[in-house]
Amino acid sequence: MILVTGGAGFIGSNFVLAAVAAGESVVNLDKLGYAGHLESLAALEGNPRHVFVKGDICDRALVRKLLAQHQPRALVHFAAESHVDRSIHGPGEFVQTNVVGTFSLLEEARAYPGKNFRFLNVSTDEVFGSLTETDPAFTEKTPYAPNSPYSASKAAADHLVRAYHHTYGLPTLISNCSNNYGPLQLPEKLIPLLIHNALAGKALPVYGDGKNVRDWLYVEDHCKALSAVLERGAPGETYNIGGNSEKTNLEVVEAVCSLLDELKPRAGGRYRDLVTHVKDRPGHDRRYAIDSSKIQRELGWKPAESFASGLKKTVQWYLANADWVKKVTSGTYADWVKKNYAARS
Ligand code: NAD
Ligand code: DAU
Fold first, then answer.
1. Does residue 179 line the site of ligand 2, with CB under 6 A?
2. Comparing 16-25, 112-121, 129-138, which segment has the lowest mean pLDDT?
3. Side-chain-facing half-sphere of 211: CA atoms under 13 Å
């Protein structure tokens, strides 16, 4: 039995689906904020190996109760405010969930007497800051230099996790991963946003000159890496996870448009005609790149998908799952987009 937080979000739901399919039992704690959707877990309805609990990770009494009741062998912590743009509009919630929420979990985990218990904190490469074109990729030894309220809150959480291992001996693990893409990602992040807008004939918004570089990893590969860290990682260690697949945003846009041209041609034009350069994100990090040689060497993990194969699967998934997209882009999500992005669409 493992306790997962944020298992109704993008990576969390992919992880929970894979874990249950592999025979694991999961208690899934998620507050079902704008990014959490039970629709993503529909395949687990009625499955006794998945217990869903709607609640906040900041609710320490609830976390304590779940640990006592289910006696999990591990806690895998995904729950977070995860979108950089939202952290610029409203950083408060990021500090609350990402810092105070992680602190709450650590405190309860410290008091939990579970045998051989492990606490895996799912973090990001953004804590390392921004690289120039010629800098070497981030390693586990790269100093933290977060630039957005999102990455600063994730960095703060990582520091707390590290301190709880060092000071209290809590068996913690930290993973720092690059940009994920794949099924079940809310279309506020670049790749699903491009697919969603293109199919709706809307502008494809590219921030600034579009030459910012990200390293892209297919979400199922990330989930496999997390399992490797959880089962075989050494307590107190951190592991960088990446796809070895650096792309400029313009390259990503071009790849998505080409796939859509092939799989669902646009009546009356090419998808790339929809590309629109818009005002840059404030403090926009120029480049991220991950050196994942440690996890490859020590835990034997490497990505199975290339960017081309993962992106094709992703576009095909979105074409086949229009109902899911419709559900998750309605309600509070739609209201926020209307209010904050009105100028660009
Ligand atoms: P997401 O925004 O899709 O999902 C976050 C989930 O956490 C949602 O289901 C939400 O309801 C839940 N949640 C938020 N606040 C909560 C709270 N206070 N209590 C309980 N549940 C809460 O995020 P994601 O993209 O799946 O990212 C998951 C984790 O992985 C995050 O910690 C993120 O920092 C990290 N990460 C993401 C990426 C990426 O590319 N998406 C890359 C590296 C690391
Ligand atoms: O690197 C890991 C991080 O990747 C995770 O920790 C974050 O949770 C996740 O959101 C992601 O952060 P990014 O800011 O890199 O992802 P996003 O999809 O928002 O943006 C990717 C790039 O695309 C970035 O350079 C900004 C640009 N962009 C994004 C959007 C939403 C655009 O040009 N236009 C857009 O509309």
1. yes
2. 112-121
3. 4
